[in-house]
């Protein structure tokens, strides 16, 4: 059975309104095996929760990834940040099964191809030192191993860490499992084959890994030090006069930053105030990957969002609390014609994230 037709039929049955769908993985390359499955990515407008599901279609095992446009973008960026762009490759190189994006899917694919081609760039000095330390430590274990079982695990660890270091030095993307080997073969096929030959020969493996380690600056173990979290720092006090408007803003309201990285050095928390003038409303927006907690100080602000496709309004007063989950489009309104509404906001990210939206629909 043709995998492309089978995948397209499956998407049509399960996701008739899909914004886009792609087929990726080994079945679209020359690496297809008898156990290859149909790796399908489906993008559905407004999908509240991305998920992964394994199922069987006729004689095909299917690995299904379902995302909204928003969650796909977030997961792609997470992959780029860890230098292992699995979803980006899927989007850029997969076969298009469905495209109702009015050209946006192809623009996304072109952008991702360009980013993949440019590579992640050189690693930071801290990341390079960490890689040198890890491989140096693994080589010490390799030289001292006497237990055959432990030796087998150590050998494979040395192979992987050597491959990762070589890819980092070359400014190349990383991979996991078989994709680590594929990335290394694309970058340095001679090194890939040398590691495979030496993976059960400790002396030869140490030589191969040692040559890569020398290219990175040599062994690093004695004197290597990494600072942990600071446990004793002074408390910080800010007065109302020290609050700053240098933070993300939405039309129809004024935000003032209080506790932030810039102001206090906070790493995982942002706090501030929002002032909503009388008879105004904010733009529709969400706060990205940030969780948001709101405490109403004064006035009677209204928080509006969609629930089951219908607009829902939460009317509040002083002393009330409101929780806004990540990525949920909403807006604040102050229907009072005379009194300003003031709220205190706490977010789980260091800085305020405000992404304006054309409406309240999930994307």
TrEMBL record:
Q: Where is the Polymerase nucleotidyl transferase domain?
A: 11-58
Domain Cupin type-2, first and last residues per copy = 275-343
**SUPFAM superfamilies reported in the protein's UniProt record:** Nucleotidyltransferase, RmlC-like cupins
Supply the name of the protein: Cupin domain-containing protein
Lineage, top-rank taxon, reads Bacteria
Q: What's one Pfam family the UniProt record gives for this protein?
A: Cupin_2
């Amino acid at each position: 059975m043709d995998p492309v037709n089978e995948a397209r039929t499956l998407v049509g049955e399960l996701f008739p309104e899909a914004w886009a769908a792609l087929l990726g993985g080994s079945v679209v390359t020359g690496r297809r095996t008898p156990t290859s499955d149909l790796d399908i990515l489906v993008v559905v407008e407004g999908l509240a929760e991305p998920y992964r599901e394994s199922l069987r279609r006729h004689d095909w095992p299917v690995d299904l990834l379902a995302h909204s446009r928003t969650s796909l973008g977030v997961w792609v960026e997470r992959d780029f940040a860890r230098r292992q762009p699995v979803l980006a490759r899927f989007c850029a190189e997969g076969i298009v099964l469905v495209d109702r994006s009015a050209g946006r899917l192809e623009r996304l694919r072109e952008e991702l191809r360009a980013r993949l081609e440019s590579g992640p760039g050189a690693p930071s000095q801290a990341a390079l030192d960490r890689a040198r330390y890890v491989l140096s430590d693994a080589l010490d274990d390799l030289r001292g191993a006497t237990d055959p079982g432990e030796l087998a695990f150590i050998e494979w660890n040395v192979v992987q860490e050597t491959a990762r270091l070589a890819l980092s030095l070359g400014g190349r993307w990383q991979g996991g499992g078989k994709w680590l080997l594929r990335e290394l073969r694309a970058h340095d096929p001679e090194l890939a084959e040398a590691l495979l030959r030496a993976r059960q020969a400790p002396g030869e493996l140490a030589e191969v890994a040692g040559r890569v380690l020398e290219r990175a600056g040599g062994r690093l173990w004695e004197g290597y030090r990494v600072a942990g979290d600071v446990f004793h720092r002074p408390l910080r006090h800010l007065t109302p006069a020290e609050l700053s408007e240098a933070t993300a803003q939405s039309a129809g309201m004024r935000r003032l930053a209080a506790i932030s990285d810039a102001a206090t050095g906070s790493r995982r928390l942002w706090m501030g105030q929002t002032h909503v003038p009388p008879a105004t409303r904010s733009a529709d927006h969400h706060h990205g990957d940030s969780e948001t907690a709101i405490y109403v100080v004064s006035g009677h602000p209204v928080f509006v969002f969609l629930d089951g496709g219908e607009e829902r309004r939460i009317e509040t007063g002083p002393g009330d609390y409101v929780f806004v989950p990540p990525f949920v489009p909403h807006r604040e309104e102050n229907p009072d014609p005379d009194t300003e509404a003031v709220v205190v906001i706490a977010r789980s990210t260091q800085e305020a994230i405000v992404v304006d939206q054309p409406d309240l629909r999930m994307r």
